[in-house]
Structures are given as structure tokens and as C-alpha cells.
Specification:
By secondary structure, the protein is mainly beta. The protein contains no helices and nine strands.
Length: about 90
């Protein structure tokens, strides 16, 4: 299974992440698993991949405090200086 590791306990603008696979440019939607630093996981779907931009849907999940986080679509851009993907907004 494809995966995305978020460097925080929830997804938010400014959060960084890394893919544990190489997203293919211009591919069809790809299922994945999102994992957070506190161990929680959520269903994810890579919707669009461009050169330095990825659009990903993160399904509903419970965060580390047991609070339900609703499904949302996020935009990510690659930051070469930190060599990581960063959440920059929602759709």
C-alpha cells in the first residue's frame, strides 16, 4: 500500500510530509494510507500529481485526542530547501 507520513498529529496548513512511494506524474487517483506522528492512520487518495504539486484527499479519522477529523482535500507543494512536501491549503 502507498503511504504518506505527516510530521504532526493531524493535517494542517504548514504541516510537512513525506511519501513512502514515488507519486507518478499525471496518474489516475491512487489509494494510500496517511500516518501521523502519534500513530493514527487514515485512508488517503492521491488525486492529482504535478511536478511540484500534489492534491490529496484524507478521509475521516480520529486524532490522538479521539476527536473526529472530517474528510478534506489538501494541496501540497514540494519545498526543495527542506526536501519535504508541505500542506499549503485546502480545496
Amino acid at each position: 500500500m502507498n503511504g504518506i507520513i505527516f510530521h504532526d498529529n493531524t493535517v494542517h496548513i504548514g504541516c510537512s510530509a513525506e511519501f513512502i512511494f514515488e507519486p507518478e506524474l499525471n496518474s489516475s487517483p491512487t489509494p494510500a494510507i496517511a500516518q501521523f506522528t502519534t500513530g493514527e492512520t487514515a485512508y488517503a487518495e492521491i488525486l492529482e500529481v504535478k511536478t511540484a504539486k500534489v492534491t490529496v484527499r484524507i478521509g475521516e479519522y480520529l486524532n490522538n485526542k479521539g476527536i473526529k477529523v472530517t474528510e478534506k482535500v489538501w494541496r501540497m507543494f514540494y519545498d526543495q530547501s527542506s526536501e519535504s512536501w508541505n500542506i499549503v491549503g485546502t480545496i
